[in-house]
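In response to the reviewer comment on reproducibility (Comment 2.3), we provide here a single inverse folding case reported in full, input and output, so that an independent group could reproduce the run without further information from us. The C-alpha cells appear first.
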C-alpha cells in the first residue's frame, strides 16, 4: 500500500475512534480513548490492507481494461469472501481477546450473528466503493494512454505522409535531368524542346505534390503531356495508349502516380524501334491500370524503389483499398484505386477527435452520476442502520431503504458498465473490430 493509503487509514482510524469515544463510551478518559483508538485502528488497517491486497492481486492478474467482465465477477466474489473472513477475525479479536465480553462459543452463536452481519455489510459497502474507485482510476489511466497513443499515431501518419510527398519533387527533377542529359548528346534540338516542356510539367509537379488527391482528369492530362516528353526522347521506340472511361474523370487518384509509374516502365524495360515498349493507361473496375509489355532490362545497380513504394504508402495512409501488382511473362501491370470521394487525413482526424471528445464527455458524466449515487448510498445507509439499531433494534426497518436503493444502484451500475447504451456501443465496437481484422486479413 502507498503512503497516501496509510495516511487515509490513519485519519479513518482517528475519526471513527473519536466518534465511538464521544457517543458510545460512558467513561471518557484517556485509557478508554486509547482502547477505542486501538480497536478502530485494528479494523481500519486489517480491512484496508486486506482489501488493498485483493485489489492489487486482481489488478496484476485481471486488469480492468483487459478483462472487465471477469474482473467484475472476481471482484464481487473476492470482496464478499475476503470481508467475511476479515470482519469475523476483527470482531473475534475485539469482543473475545481485547474487551473479553464474549467467549469463543458465544461469539459464534446467534448472540453475535446480528453484530457480525452488520459489520460485514458496512465493510462490503466501503470495499465496494474502494473497488469502484480503483476501477475509475484504471479507466482514467487507460483513457489517457489511448489518447496519447492516438495522438502519436496521428502525428506519425502526418509526418510520414509529408515525407512521402516531399520525395516527389527531387525524384522528378533528378529523373528529368537524367533524360535531358541524354538528349543533349543524342539530339540537341530535341533537348531544347524538352527543356521548355519540362518547365511546364515541373510547374504542375510543384502545384500538385502537396495535395492528397487530384482528379483523374488532371492526372491524365498531365500524363499525356509527360508522355509527349518521353516521345521526344524515344520517338517510335515507345507508344502510349489511353483508354480511361469518361465517368471516371471526376473521381480521384494520388497526384503524380501516373508519372511515377510511367517512369518505372521506362526505367525497367528496354525500348527499340523494332521492339517498341507499349504502355496502356486505362480504367477497370474502380482502378486505374498502367500496363506495359514486359521487356525487362538488366539492372546495373539496385533500384531505390521510390516510385511504386511511394504510391503504395500514400494510398495506405488515405484508404483501405490496396495497390495491386500483376506480373507475367508477357506484361507488367499496376492497378491503383480510383476514389469516389476526396478524404482528408486532417479533417478525418479532427472529426474523430471531436467524436472521441464528445463520447468521453458523455462517459465521464455517466460515471460521475453513478459514483455520486454510490457514495450517497454508502454514506446514508450505514447512518440509517446505526439509527435503527440504537433507537429501535427490535424493529429492523432499515432493510427497506437498503434493499430498494440498493436495487436502484445495481440497476444504475448495469446501465453504466454492463447493459444499455454503453453495452450497445461496446458490442458495436467489437463487431467493427472483428470486421476490420477480417478485412485486413483478406487484403494480405
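Designed residues, in position order:
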Amino acid at each position: 500500500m502507498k503512503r497516501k493509503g496509510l495516511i487515509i487509514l490513519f485519519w479513518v482510524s482517528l475519526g471513527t475512534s473519536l466518534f465511538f469515544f464521544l457517543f458510545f463510551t460512558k467513561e471518557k478518559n484517556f485509557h478508554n480513548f486509547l482502547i477505542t483508538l486501538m480497536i478502530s485502528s485494528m479494523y481500519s488497517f486489517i480491512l484496508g490492507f486486506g482489501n488493498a491486497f485483493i485489489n492489487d492481486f486482481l489488478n496484476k492478474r485481471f486488469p480492468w481494461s483487459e478483462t472487465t467482465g471477469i474482473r467484475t465477477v472476481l471482484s464481487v466474489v473476492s470482496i464478499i469472501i475476503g470481508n467475511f473472513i476479515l470482519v469475523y477475525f476483527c470482531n473475534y479479536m475485539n469482543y473475545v481477546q481485547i474487551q473479553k465480553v464474549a467467549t469463543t462459543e458465544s461469539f459464534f452463536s446467534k448472540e453475535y450473528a446480528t453484530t457480525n452481519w452488520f459489520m460485514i455489510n458496512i465493510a462490503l459497502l466501503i470495499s465496494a466503493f474502494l473497488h469502484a474507485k480503483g476501477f475509475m482510476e484504471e479507466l482514467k489511466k487507460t483513457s489517457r494512454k489511448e489518447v496519447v497513443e492516438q495522438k502519436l499515431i496521428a502525428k506519425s501518419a502526418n509526418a510520414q505522409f509529408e515525407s512521402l510527398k516531399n520525395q516527389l519533387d527531387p525524384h522528378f527533377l533528378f529523373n528529368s535531368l537524367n533524360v535531358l542529359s541524354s538528349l543533349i548528346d543524342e539530339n540537341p534540338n530535341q533537348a531544347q524542346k524538352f527543356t521548355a516542356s519540362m518547365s511546364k510539367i515541373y510547374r504542375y509537379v510543384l502545384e500538385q505534390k502537396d495535395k492528397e488527391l487530384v482528379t483523374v482528369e488532371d492526372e491524365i492530362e498531365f500524363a499525356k503531356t509527360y508522355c509527349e516528353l518521353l516521345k521526344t526522347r524515344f520517338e517510335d521506340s515507345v507508344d502510349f495508349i489511353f483508354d480511361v472511361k469518361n465517368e471516371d474523370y471526376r473521381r480521384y487518384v494520388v497526384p503524380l502516380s501516373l508519372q511515377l509509374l510511367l517512369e518505372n516502365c521506362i526505367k525497367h524495360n528496354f525500348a527499340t524501334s523494332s521492339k517498341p515498349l507499349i504502355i496502356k493507361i486505362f480504367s477497370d473496375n474502380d482502378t486505374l491500370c498502367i500496363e506495359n509489355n514486359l521487356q525487362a532490362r538488366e539492372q546495373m545497380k539496385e533500384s531505390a524503389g521510390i516510385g511504386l513504394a511511394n504510391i503504395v504508402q500514400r494510398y495506405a495512409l488515405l484508404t483501405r483499398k490496396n495497390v495491386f501488382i500483376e506480373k507475367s511473362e508477357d506484361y507488367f501491370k499496376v492497378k491503383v484505386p480510383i476514389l469516389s470521394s476526396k478524404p482528408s487525413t486532417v479533417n478525418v482526424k479532427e472529426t474523430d477527435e471531436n467524436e472521441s471528445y464528445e463520447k468521453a464527455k458523455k462517459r465521464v458524466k455517466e460515471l460521475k452520476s453513478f459514483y455520486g449515487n454510490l457514495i450517497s448510498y454508502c454514506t446514508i445507509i450505514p447512518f440509517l442502520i446505526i439509527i435503527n439499531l440504537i433507537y429501535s433494534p427490535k424493529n429492523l426497518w432499515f432493510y427497506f431503504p437498503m434493499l430498494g436503493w440498493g436495487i436502484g444502484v445495481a440497476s444504475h451500475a448495469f446501465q453504466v458498465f454492463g447493459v444499455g447504451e454503453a453495452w450497445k456501443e461496446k458490442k458495436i465496437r467489437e463487431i467493427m473490430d472483428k470486421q476490420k481484422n477480417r478485412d485486413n486479413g483478406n487484403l494480405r
